[in-house]
Write a structure and sequence with these properties.
Layout lengths: L14 H27 L4 H19 L2 H13 L1 H15 L7 H24 L6 H23 L3 H5 L10 H21 L3 H18 L3 H19 L1 H17 L4 H8 L2 H6 L5 H17 L17 H5 L2 H4 L10 H29 L3 H20 L6 H24 L2
Helix pairs in contact: 1-2, 1-6, 2-5, 2-19, 4-17, 5-19, 6-8, 6-9, 8-9, 8-10, 8-18, 8-19, 10-11, 10-18, 11-17, 12-14, 14-17, 17-18, 18-19
Length: 419
Amino acid sequence: MSTLEMASSGRPLSGPRSRLAETLWRIAAGALIAMPVGMAIAHRSSPVFLVLSALCSLAALAAEGNLHPFVRRVVAALRSPLGVTALVFAGWSLLSVGWSEFRGLSLAALGEFWLPIACAFVVALALPRHLMRPAFGLLAGAIVAACFMMIIELRTGLAFRQMIGRRWNSFIFNRSLLTLLVLMPPLAIWLAVNLRRGWIYALALVAFVAAAMAHGESGASALGLTVACSVFVLAWFAPRAVAGLAMGAFIAAMVAGPFIGPISDRLIPSFVHERLAKDHSRERVDIWISFGAAIREQPILGTGFGVSPRMRDTTVAEKVPEADRTLLAVGHPHNVAIQIWTELGVVGAALALAIILLVVRAVRRQPRPIMSASFALMAAATAVGLVGHGAWQGWWAASLGAAITWMLAARKAFLERTP
């Protein structure tokens, strides 16, 4: 008798309850499987799939009579060093609303970011044991389908979207491509480990995603893919060195947050900016300089969670040299480290760094295939975070939460195959 057919007390579930629980688990898994296609259609939709998966997972646990054991697992996870640090970071984020000049904006940002994080936490604890071989096969199909959908749309000039009166800017697929980027490492390593000639299928998956990126306009996704592949190879052959380098790189990136703009301005030659003109590298450096100036005006507490879209209107902005104020209105600093410093100050930066280092330590303890893929995932997300989207965007948090869940499922499958 499967665990799905047993209540937490060890008694068999009734037929209707067993069928209900099984249906709910399938919907929860199906929501994550459908995410790549959903993002190819609606490029901010990943939170919808993650929230649906979390709600169905909780409902399935309730149908099984396993909510109380699950709550104990939640409490145990939150009592771990990583869990405690994450809770303190969440508390500091909430506390920062108190000194935010735009509290409504801060509260909206808190909801947009922490709701997907909470749902990802639930799904990561509950769902991996239900993501088995068929689920990974369906995910592969969904990613390939999403790639084909985007390639066809881009090659036809998004004619269908124009015809139905929807947004048809080609950059709308940037978020979709980044979602594929982070879902790729767990699926690739599962293919490589669990299928005969699996490395061929894994490389084919990477090729499909790369082809979609080549048709799109997301320079961040191409950078993330390059970094992920490089880190995967390095982690496979030199895991200890990569773990050490990762810790050093994260420490350097976070500590240098207030000064990344001036440092980049001095170190990046003009010909590099010329080659990367379409990716707006020069503009990014200027944005980093402007937000760095704002950080240095209020480095301890920051300006409050999620305030970056209104940074130009804060009293802190009034203290920034006039030449640097204009770019404070761009929405966010296009660098996660700078945004954390800007909004949460040195306290938030220290807490975020502690979380990252604890994650690196946990990844280092995984079996080599899972460790290498996990470092590749972290590298891809970091590369994107240092040049791309805002730190608290809900679609990005949801996409990363789904990727972590798939990685945990890949880890479970690997451990079950290993004597």
